[in-house]
Design brief:
Structural class: alpha/beta
Low-confidence stretches: none
Strand content: 15-25%
CATH superfamily: P-loop containing nucleotide triphosphate hydrolases
Largest sheet: 6 strands, parallel
Shape: globular
Distance between the termini: 11 Å
Mean pLDDT: 94
Helix content: 10-25%
Radius of gyration: 18 Å
CATH topology: Rossmann fold
Order of helices and strands: EHEHEEHEEEEH
Number of domains: 1
Length: about 160
């Protein structure tokens, strides 16, 4: 599987770009999966639901399955957060895995950048960032795309990974 990331600071436009890239790349006939890093606690099930009750009762893992989707929840219960490398083998084979976040990992990435956030670019200190997708002009030694030019960003990523 080919890997490519979208990284950037909070509110830089990562999720919107990811969503548009998945739509664009899948529309070209490629299979795409995603991995998103969260810096906060989250739940995919809700209090009162059977799967939630199983997990709260002490189950280490809960698989919820229907004819429309399957979700697997693993309760870490104090164990270390799994690395990206340990999560990727859990995915079924696809043409491309797009990774949101994981800015410290070494896979190739596009940095999403919005001027209004007031943050500096990550790219100058990170050679794994191969391009910038920005809402403003950026001076850097890598390709710079308009943050909303999804087609051009998709072209770049697909070329980078050889698809």
């Amino acid at each position: 599987m080919k890997l490519y990331g979208v990284t950037g600071w909070k509110n830089a436009g990562k999720t919107g770009l990811m969503e548009r890239l998945v739509t664009e790349i899948a529309s070209r006939g490629f299979t795409v999966s995603t991995v998103k890093h969260a810096h906060h606690t989250f739940d995919v099930d809700h209090p009162g639901k059977d799967s939630y009750r199983h997990r709260v009762a002490g189950a280490s893992e809960v698989i919820l399955a229907s004819r429309n989707r399957v979700a697997q929840m693993t309760e870490l219960r104090g164990a270390e957060e799994p690395s990206l490398d340990s999560l990727l083998p859990r995915l079924a084979p696809v043409d491309l895995v797009l990774i949101e976040g994981y800015k410290r990992d070494r896979h190739p990435k596009v940095e999403a950048f919005r001027a209004e956030t007031g943050n500096s670019l990550i790219a100058p200190d990170d050679p794994s960032i191969r391009a910038i997708a920005a809402d403003c002009p950026v001076e850097i030694d890598r390709p710079v795309f308009d943050l909303n030019d999804t087609e051009a960003i998709a072209d770049f990523i697909l070329s980078e990974v050889g698809l």
